[in-house]
Amino acid sequence: MGQTLGDIAATLILLSGLAVIVGVVLIRRGDRVWHPRVMLTATVLAALFLVFYLLKWGLYGTTRYVGPEEWRGAYYALLFSHTLLAALNGPLVIWLIYNALKGRFAIHKAWARWTVPIWLYVAATGWVIDLILKRYGESAGGIRF
Ligand code: HEM
User: Fold this and answer.
1) pLDDT tens per residue, range 55-74
2) Is the Transmembrane helix keyword given for this protein (predicted)?
3) CB within 6 Å of ligand 1 — which residues?
């Protein structure tokens, strides 16, 4: 069950990253109708990811890295950068949407230049971390069903 929740979460974050790429392509093509729709879909997918991730965390606890020692530093650097930028991404996305809905597109565009790469980094590393822990992870506690 814990593995299933993790797989769902990893799929959702990956889909949200893909939706962001599609949303950027759409606005580059001048599509002001589908750009917001696709970006809001990406936001919902990221929010759903958070729900499944927190559910897994709450029910099954965290997963400890038990892979090769020489990769431990690199793994934790990846995990730290992922977590930090994921926390930053939330307020940035709310700010982006707020400005877009207010019609302040110059501000929206300026912040989007930073937010999009951060979002894509978070999505890609989240997926990579899930793959690493599938191979080299060990449950660090929590309730198991
Ligand atoms: C989190 C969600 C969003 C992200 C990540 C995002 C991202 C972006 C990016 C990267 C650009 C600039 C593309 C370029 O380089 O030319 C852009 C432009 C734009 N976005 Fe968004 N967007 C989001 C949500 C929205 C929403 C909800 C709306 C509408 C209500 C919207 C409307 C626009 C418009 C109209 C532009 C063109 C601005 C201009 O060229 O002056 N966006 N967005």
Assistant:
1) 998 998 888 999 999 999 99
2) yes
3) 20, 23-24, 27-28, 32, 35-36, 39-40, 43, 93, 96-97, 100-101, 105, 108-109, 112, 115-116
